[in-house]
Amino acid sequence: MKMDSLDKLFEESLADLYSAEKQLTDALPKAAKAAQSADLRAAFESHLKETEGHVERLEKVFKEIGGKPEAKTCMAMQGLVKEADEAIKIEPAGAIRDAGLIGAAQRIEHYEMAAYGTARAFAETLGNTKARDLLQATLNEEAKANEKLTQIAENTVNREAASV
Ligand SMILES: [Fe+2]
Fold this sequence. Notes:
Layout: H1 6-34, H2 38-64, H3 75-88, H4 95-125, H5 129-162
The structure holds fe (ii) ion.
């Protein structure tokens, strides 16, 4: 692959994220349906709404760099979603499945945080402060979503899973 400028690598990383977020808008409703804890279901549902906002923010960033929103299949997210599907299929439904769902979702959030951190740094280096701020806003929401999952695991789900 020819890649002769940071601008192009930046656009490529946006295309990867665009694919990742779109995959998540399909995966999160399934995770919400599979979750038994009301808190966990609510967390997935509210992160779905945020994720739809992340897709829109990425469209704004594409506009900011004069590009068209284009997705390039994020293979890492495909793998992470496959692992989440395995957690969804854990039987019986209950705290153990929920603990599996949280583990899969936290790996997804960390992947996104890493990818947004890189893209944000590219925007910063390229002097595109508007793109940088949009990417930072999403990064903050991913970090909060991850913290929320930690709380649910620590406050209830892991303990309940241990007593099954
Ligand atoms: Fe996101």
